[in-house]
Amino acid sequence: MVEGKSFVLLEALSTAIETFERIRDESDTGGSKPSDATSHGNFGDVSTAQGLKSLNAWLESRSYIAGWTPTQADESTFNALKKIPDESQYPHASRWYNHIASFGAAKSQFPGAKTPIHGGKQDARGPEPSQSEVNVKATVAPDDEEEIDLFGDDEEVDEEAERIKAERIREYEAKKAKKTKEAAKSSILLDVKPWDDETDMSALEANVRSIAMEGLVWGQSKLVAVGFGIKKLQISCVIEDDKVGVDDLSDRIQEDEDHVQSVDVGV
């Protein structure tokens, strides 16, 4: 009977460690996880004007759909859009779209469970339970009605079970140590102001885009009137925070003294 209890205890311990590993891995993503649309603004069908309006309002004060880093919620919403949102009507959704697009194929590696899309919005039912959760429920409930005390006397826990437990923990720690975290990125909007209305804005923009730095990707740009016939260049970019500093980038742009008067971080 003791051997039978030890076997069941060993199986329960194995699946519990697997579940613990999954929870720890999810927590490594920064505490954020994708959530369905109903808990994040209820965007509806983002391929419609009403859905885009809701999405734009949600992103007005946020960088991502959920949390502080990109997740599968961002990829699902991105894939549901038919095209880039009109910047004049949905500036925040357009900014977010360009930022997510800059990740390219890496979007599929965003953390979090993939949430299916139905009719342009995320499924409010949430992800199906994982196999490890099903295994835990099946293992903890034995076929017979005999109650098993997982926290019983030490005399009932054999040395073999303890050895396997320690080995599993060592394997988990070694696996976790090999993981590399994705570099943090930021989406920046820069206002580049010329000296006067006679400044060659085409040459100004060309000089700005010629700046190449590791971790810097230039995005869309446009000319914005500021008065008296003068227009400023408004240009977006995505930077890796550990490689590119905003101050350093501004200094590089202002080296073009023939065209650039000043550089500000836009709102």
Describe the structure.
The chain has 267 residues and is an alpha+beta fold. Among the domains are: 61 residues, no CATH class; 82 residues, Alpha-Beta Plaits, CATH 3.30.70.60. It is 39% helix and 16% strand. It has 8 helices and 6 strands. The strands form 2 sheets. A 4-stranded antiparallel β-sheet has the order 4-5-3-6. Strand 1 and strand 2 form a beta hairpin. Helix 1 runs antiparallel to helix 5, helix 1 packs parallel to helix 6 and helix 2 crosses helix 4. 21% of the residues are buried. About 10% of the residues have low confidence. Belongs to the EF-1-beta/EF-1-delta family. Pfam families: EF-1_beta_acid, EF1_GNE. GO terms for molecular function: guanyl-nucleotide exchange factor activity; translation elongation factor activity.
Quick rundown:
This protein has 267 residues and is of the alpha+beta class. The chain contains eight helices and six strands.
| CATH class annotation of the domain at 185-266 | Alpha Beta
Q: Determine the number of helices (DSSP H or I, runs of at least 4 residues).
A: 8
- Termini separation: 70 Å
Q: Main sheet?
A: 4 strands, antiparallel
SSE order: HHHHEEHHEHEEHE
CATH superfamily of the domain at 185-266: Ribosomal protein S6/Translation elongation factor EF1B
Whole-angstrom Rg: 26 Å
Mean pLDDT: 75
Overall spatial form: elongated
